[in-house]
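Record pair follows.
FIRST:
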Amino acid sequence: MAERTLRGARLGGQSFEDERGIEFAARQQVGYRCPQAHEFEITMSVEADIPAVWECPRCGAEGLSTAGIQKEEKAEKPVRTHWDMLLERRSEKELEDILKERLDLLRGGQIGPAHLHRSKKRRATA
């Protein structure tokens, strides 16, 4: 077993593979400029979809492509409120009926805060 170990090798330090005969993928340099006027280039594959923005390595701001690639505008969904989601499941008539039923139960003392129920029971037994 000792014969197979590599002495002095560091984790992730060096590759012992030979680069002869390896054909690298075609690459291109893509330029970006951030709002702070920092210009930088990123190496990408020729086949890659070029993003319109890239984070600036110096300041962290969004750098825009110098090749004129525009950001895709996402179609924004209208904000759905709790009421909108409720109306997807029930009609207004159904909601009115449920509300009336629950109010009757609340007024009758059958539902509601626990301390209200206890005090009525004590009064009835006293």
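SECOND:
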Amino acid sequence: MKTSLTLKLAGAYNILWGILVILFPLSFFDFFEMDLPRYPQIWQCVGMIVGVYGIGYWIAAKDPNRHWPIVFVGFLGKILGPIGFLENLINGTFPLSFGVNIIFNDIIWWIPFGVLLKQAYDAEKNQ
């Protein structure tokens, strides 16, 4: 898959997910049959952060090799998110069903983002 298309897809997905979380913060908890948060505004902040990442990915799509730091920061989040999920799964804070969220927000992007970062590294090395 072309790198700029990958980043545009990631950008669009993140922006859409962020908007949904901001507008309907309790829907994810209802869907996964979780206790509703006491402060849904914190979850809305997560949506805002994810949406902002999406804007960054969209910008990076114009020149992925030049904007590799945006991809790298996103990649770190996509690695750390599942680690946090696993910790909360083990502690009984999150149900296993919430892992669907982790699959689509994080895990499916590991390979495409890894490829993008490798391409940027190779391009830098060959200059």
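COMMENT: Residues 26 and 36 are 7 Å apart (CA to CA).
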